[in-house]
Amino acid sequence: MLAQGPKVEEFEHSFTKYCDSTHGIGVNSGTAALHASLLALGIGSGDEVIVPAFTFFATASSVCMCGAKPVFADVDEDTFNLSIDSLEENLSQKTRAVIGVHLFGQSFAIRPVAEICGERGIHFIEDAAQAHGAMYHGKKVGSFGVAGCFSFYPTKNMTTGEGGMVTTHDADLAAVIRRYINHGQTEKYLHTCIGYNFRLTDIGAAIGLAQLKKLDAFNKRRQQTATYYDDHIRCPGIILPEVTEGVEHVYHQYVIRVTDECRLTRDQLVIALREKGIGTAVHYPIPLHRQPVFEECAKKSRCPVSDKLAAEVLSLPVHPLVTDTERKYIAESVNEVA
Question: According to the model, what pLDDT value does residue 4 have?
């Protein structure tokens, strides 16, 4: 079978076990994972969902696709992850869920977020799209919240071509998610809700099974390159990534900050490195509360750290195929031109 066949079932089981979770539902994107999870939790019109202002667009757009309102919280300047203070400031009577993002491969502060949500009866969702294999105090991310949402887009730490996964310990929630991702069917041609075609294919799952076997090696290589950069990039005005104690970072991205103390601006450094044959990227140049499509719902948002980071961040190559020679050249080039 090409869709929802035995390979999908095998991949769901294998990935769920890897993540220390109980149930896994394969889907066709990380966005679909978020969307289906929110729908299954009953999030809809009149509800608010708190999301970080500094993350990829889909974290917030999935909220809108349910008819709910994303509320933008600021992030921590050192880790780029959800600020606990800002989270608490943005809670309201309408808050139904919080989506925490393990940005760039590093877990956010799960324990305080889980406590805040538990005390108020708010759903706690992990956006682990960039954090396959990352750990928080010895346990894999994606196993803490009511749902863990993963992406297998080609640039992620592992891929299925296109695809995603929801992990959860809640059997009832898993069943509802399965219904939403398959046109609302409880059995063939019996539809009990309006669902979507969010199914993962058997071909994608077969790729995922092969990739999963390599994931730890992929992550180890990313970590080795990140450690090399940590040890060899020495440039005034360049701030290197900070790793929180008790967290294992898997470096979906290695993100430096180019501050005012640097000789070049961030955008000038992009050009200077490109001239040396080094490709870089900016994740992300426009925080979510500044996106035109969110203008109305972000009117009261105050996220100064997200604004600052958007002007400073720069991602250096850290994928598993970066060679020892290449990472040496990259570090030397940053030191030379920055």
Answer: 79
Chain mean pLDDT for the chain = 98
Q: In angstroms, what CA-CA distances link 245 with 106, 107, 113, 204, 248?
A: 11, 11, 17, 35, 8
CATH code, 94 = 3.40.640.10
Residue 295 lies in a domain: yes
- SS3 annotation, 174-189: HHHHHHHCECCEEECC
Q: What is the DSSP string of 55-124?
A: S-THHHHHHHHTT-EEEEEPB-TTT-SBPHHHHHHT--TTEEEEEEE-GGG----HHHHHHHHHHHT-EE
Judge contact between 98 and 125, C-beta under 8 A: yes
Contact yes or no for 21/141 (Cβ under 8 A): no
Q: Which two tokens stand for residue 251?
A: 């470096």
Show Cβ contacts of residue 249 under 8 Å, excluding neighbours closer than 6 positions. 104, 105, 106, 134, 223, 226, 241, 243
- The model's pLDDT over 38-96, given as tens digits with 9 standing for 90+, comes to 999 999 999 999 999 999 999 999 999 999 999 999 999 999 999 999 999 999 999 99
132, two tokens: 């396959």
Q: Specify the number of domains making up the chain.
A: 2
Question: pLDDT for 171-202, tens place per residue?
Answer: 999 999 999 999 999 999 999 999 999 999 99
Helix, coil or strand: residue 201: strand
| pLDDT per position as a tens digit, 275-326 | 999 999 999 999 999 999 999 999 889 999 999 999 999 999 999 999 999 9
- pTM of this structure: 0.97
Structural domain that includes position 267: 216-337
